[in-house]
């Protein structure tokens, strides 16, 4: 299954989700995108620090979400606003927020952009929690 994690700039939350998912499962193809991304932009310093601290694989370089991305098996966004945007632009897309798909919740993953490392650590813990649930759900065929 091909899964894309989506946030705003593809430098903080979605790269963390991609790296965490890649570290936990090789049964699916994970990547990430941003709705307002600058192609090739580096992962934020604090996200990169956490990726290295946890020994995670490197995420894809920042990339803008596109029409081709709407055709993947599953699109997982960090917020309800991201989900609504994709639904408006690409009605055929199979899109959920991370908390919605993983746990049936309506919780947004806050953007730590511009924050301190501790802000990123909180977001990391939240994303890891939901990604583990997402993978469990996928692996159980639900």
Please name the defining characteristics of this protein.
globular; 5 helices; 13% strand; 142 residues; alpha/beta
Written account of the structure:
With 142 residues, the protein is of the alpha/beta class. Helix content is 42%, strand content 13%. It has 5 helices and 4 strands, in the order βαβαβαβαα. A 4-stranded parallel sheet has the order 2-1-3-4, with helices on both faces. The mean pLDDT is 97.
Task: Tell me the strand order in the biggest sheet.
Answer: 2-1-3-4
Query: How many runs of DSSP E, i.e. beta strands?
Result: 4
What integer is the average pLDDT?
A: 97
Largest sheet: 4 strands, parallel
The best one-word shape is globular
Strand content: 5-15%
String of helices and strands: EHEHEHEHH
Number of helices: 5
How big is the Rg? 14 Å
Distance, first to last CA:
13 Å
Query: Which secondary-structure class do the elements indicate?
Result: alpha/beta
How much helicity do the residues have? 40-55%
Which blocks of ≥5 consecutive residues have pLDDT under 50? none
Oligomeric status = single chain
Task: Describe the secondary structure blueprint for this structure.
Blueprint: E1 2-7, H1 13-24, E2 29-34, H2 45-53, E3 74-77, H3 80-89, E4 95-97, H4 98-103, H5 117-139
Parallel strand pairs: 1-2, 1-3, 3-4
Helix pairs in contact: 1-2, 1-5
């Amino acid at each position: 299954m091909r899964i894309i994690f989506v946030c705003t700039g593809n430098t903080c939350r979605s790269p963390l989700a991609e790296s965490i998912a890649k570290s936990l499962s090789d049964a699916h193809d994970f990547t990430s995108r941003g709705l307002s991304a600058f192609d090739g932009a580096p992962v934020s310093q604090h996200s990169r620090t956490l990726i290295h601290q946890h020994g995670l694989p490197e995420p894809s370089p920042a990339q803008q979400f596109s029409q081709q991305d709407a055709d993947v098996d599953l699109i997982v966004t960090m917020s309800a606003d991201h989900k609504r945007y994709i639904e408006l632009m690409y009605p055929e897309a199979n899109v959920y927020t991370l908390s919605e798909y993983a746990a049936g919740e309506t919780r947004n993953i806050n953007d730590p952009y511009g924050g301190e490392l501790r802000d990123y650590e909180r977001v990391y813990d939240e994303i890891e929690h939901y990604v583990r649930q997402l993978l469990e759900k996928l692996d159980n065929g639900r």
